[in-house]
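Section 3.1 - Work completed
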Amino acid sequence: MKETKIAKENVEKLGELLSPDKYVIKGKCQEHKQTCQRWLEFLEDVDRIDCQVCTGVLQTKIKDLKQAIKTYEDVGI
């Protein structure tokens, strides 16, 4: 759950910082969210291909990316 962990750390930093620094962290959060969304789209396309060997790994990564995106959406990013 690497991406979810990063998202949670970014959101925690966002809540702790003063106004000028929040813009920097908020930008970082938005970039990470967009990266997660792009990876999610890619992996969902790959998952459609019948790949029995890597299905479990892909499903775990897809779940992680969705959770990271949800973490950002829950705080309005």
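Second construct:
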Amino acid sequence: MDYLKLLHGAYNTIVMALFIRQGLLGFTIRRERLAGRPLPVMAIGRHRKRGPLLAGMAFLGFLAGASLSYLDHGHIQHHPLHFATGATLMLAIGGTYLVSRQIRVGASPWRTVHFSIGIAILFLYPLQAFLGLGVFL
């Protein structure tokens, strides 16, 4: 079980790093759009293609953590703060995915919503990782 917990932590650390990279791509796109400069087409393509994949990867990591907790302790809330932060993170990731489906070419108020939720995700992920370290200590 301890090896599975380490695998869960390693997997989610990689997913967190990929989300940070995704956020940097999104920020680059936003900065260029707001400055009125030509849009970075390659970054847009990567951001659009990787977003749904990363959302799925994050959900699998959350599901794996909940499953490990259930198998090890008989319930999924053995580490309630870690679980609650993970659940909030899943809601934020799901929300930003749903919002992204509303964004169209040109000015869209959904871009600001997408950006705001994305910032929340980038704050929640390191907090979640820190709380996850508490599981081992």
